[in-house]
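@here heads up, posting the sequence + SMILES for the zinc ion run so it's all in one place. Ping me if the SMILES looks off, I pulled it from an old spreadsheet.
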Amino acid sequence: MKNFRQIIVLLAVSIKLAAQPQTANYQYKIDLINIRADKILVTFTPPQNNLKEGKYIIPRMVPGYYDAMDFGQYISDFKAVDDKGRPIEVKKLDVNTWMVADLKNAAEISYLVSDGWEHLTQQTGGAKSPASMFKKDSLFIINYNSLVGYFDEITTAGYDITVKKNPEFYPSSALKYIPKNDTIDVTSAKDYRNLVDSPVFYCVPDTTWLRVGNTNVLVSFYSGKHKSFSKNLAAKLETILTNQQAYLGGKLPVNEYAFLIYHEEIPRGLMGDGLEHSNSTVCLYASQTLDELPNALKGLASHEFFHILTPLNIHSEEILEFNFLDPVLSKHLWLYEGMTEYATIHMPVKQRMTTLVEFTKVIEGKIRGMEPFDNTLSMTEMSTTAIKRQDQYLNFYQKGALIGLCLDIRLRELSKGKIGTQDLMQKLMKKFGPEKAFNDEDLFDEITAMTFPEIRQFFKYYIEQGEPLPLKESLQKAGLDFDQTLKVITVIDKPSKSQLSLRKAWVNQ
Ligand SMILES: [Zn+2]
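bot reply: prediction finished. Complex structure tokens:
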């Protein structure tokens, strides 16, 4: 908090109105050069309209992150003027919404945005991958949900964005940015969802391109101290992606993908968080040195990339028609987060990147990981109430992954080894896809129809109700013994023929 009053006076003088032609798109200008006390000036012209008033919304929530973040709290000095520069009345309704009177005559709307990078973590327990960061001389991490909004009355319009930037900075994003000159880039998105789905890093680039199958992959890295590390990370990612490709049946489901990776130094430990998007992911790491980073990528980047299956390609209507202010949450976080985490831990053993014994250690970790949570809760109910149940939310990565494991083994058992969760996800992706949602209520019946009648009971007991997971029984079928008291898994010395063949189908070992 610096001298706030002075900033506003300066701003009022410095806004120059250019007569903008009215168009069907939102026309935004974002100024990354003239930063005012860590705040960015955003100005825009709304799409042509005949509205008496309009409710402007900055997201309270974003897809993929299951807690309220109220990005409106970082917006200040919101104002609107007509084409003669005369003020138009604006009323702040609540933390994330503003009512603009006489919207049809609003020629320019402007506000200041502070990044909330440090502040947001107090609210989210450390997670900041959906947030933005402005470091004038080094890096801008832009998640458009913190800078750009939409009118409730104009939700289908496209976005044209003009970014004014330092000539040495270049954008890394899944969206195409076209340079107009060395300080101006333009980009566009087909709608608000598409814009928010495409974060960007602006900095002196450290980038490496990869080609995995038919997919072009951009690896963009930023760290305050180390200037060229993207190559090392790209080498690691190439191994992961090549194996993910094989795990997904030989083809990655996207043609282009960008990893936007940020690292900061902390005295000890390793922290990371990430947020998945259709064609990119933001991965944030903090550690003492970069040494741990390539290995840490294995878990986080792999998890975020596997989200390409779900929720990005397999999702319910609640996610397809996401409401940024007051979303109705789907019942199926067990699928979106649980199955994604299961694929992340299962892929390395299935692809023989790790041994069966190492895999059992990972499973033990998940079993211990779910202990602090209330495992009698219904996973579907927890999913729809995730915002209120932040104390239980992280269990989707622990118990959720173990549900995936038990489901995988059950499917292998019922199909005599022929199908597992890998095949199930492919089937679901074929039936649904990015533009075709499933009905939240019907998913369990859909999967049952695609697989075996017995699977309906599995969903009923272990996901809809909170019955204890059949871990011992499931692992036993694959020739593994689970000591429930010691929480230790051992490989059975002389497994039966059926145990061996199920294990072979399940983990290829
Ligand atoms: Zn996830």
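MO: Residues 207-308 form a domain with the Neutral Protease; domain 2 fold (CATH 1.10.390.10).
MO: One more: The pocket of zinc ion is lined by residues 276, 303, 307, 337, 340 (CB under 6 Å).
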